Prior knowledge:
Blueprint: H1 3-27, H2 37-54, H3 59-67, H4 69-96, H5 101-112, H6 123-168, H7 174-183, H8 190-210, H9 213-216, H10 226-243, H11 250-269, H12 288-300, H13 309-320, H14 324-333, H15 370-375
Amino acid sequence: xxxxxxxxxxxxxxxxxxxxxxxxxxxxxxxxxxxxxxxxxxxxxxxxxxxxxxxxxxxxxxxxxxxxxxxxxxxxxxxxxxxxxxxxxxxxxxxxxxxxxxxxxxxxxxxxxxxxxxxxxxxxxxxxxxxxxxxxxxxxxxxxxxxxxxxxxxxxxxxxxxxxxxxxxxxxxxxxxxxxxxxxxxxxxxxxxxxxxxxxxxxxxxxxxxxxxxxxxxxxxxxxxxxxxxxxxxxxxxxxxxxxxxxxxxxxxxxxxxxxxxxxxxxxxxxxxxxxxxxxxxxxxxxxxxxxxxxxxxxxxxxxxxxxxxxxxxxxxxxxxxxxxxxxxxxxxxxxxxxxxxxxxxxxxxxxxxxxxxxxxxxxxxxxxxxxxxxx
Length: 376
């Protein structure tokens, strides 16, 4: 074996081992991974799709384009794992065999896809061929087995997000969520809602950091989004705690804490910088005027406000400073629907979307309550 062929064997082995390690940490090990070859290539592919999406002015057209983006990235990762393995095994076969350089890669492809039409009748290359055949089957089998777990986590996430359509409008908004519960007299259901979202945050924190592809999967409904839904729930709980400290349930506090913990875990995966211990007196981006308008809206809905907007503002700001900046960056990067209180977007044509409250039609009042219509 010449020094060049020995170097090819070492390099090829290193490439294959790195590829298997990337595959294992991406699909099997349930924790975030640092950037490796294929995951780095997938990140580049994702950024390329985002650059294209940023040039689409219509939100609806942008959403349709991005809905297929992450599935394409997943297919790209599968091809990349196979291609890197194909190259690594090709170098090994050429290094230990007697065939020309190009022929070694023909043998590598034949073995990778278990075709078996091109093998060198010598022990060492045949052993490598068997190993490569197992590698090819492993990559495809793991990718297939990975999809049910991925979509199961996706479905669990989207169940509560879809339920917000009736509770908070679409796209959801925190003040609207709180107002609707009081308007129809179901405020006693709020502790259960916050308890469910606390568990949802724990589930999303675990699943979306282990499998970051889930972060980029878009909701079936164009105006729904997991990050917008989470911000709406956190804002409603924060408003409740700030305005009605005697009435707000303990579940609201627990939901907010688990919510910003979830966002921070995701921020680490997305490499978003944040202050892990912000001061309650730090400024936030949401203007006080918008907060005061929301408080008036809640008062008209019958929420038992115990503090004025001015008195509640420091408490609201002290809670929101824990999650506002992170949620704004995530929503910006994921091209989330431009909902109220969720920060700016890239070239968001049409402006911010507001939830529309449906008419409360009743016998003798087919057009709904005039006072409620004014709030719509």
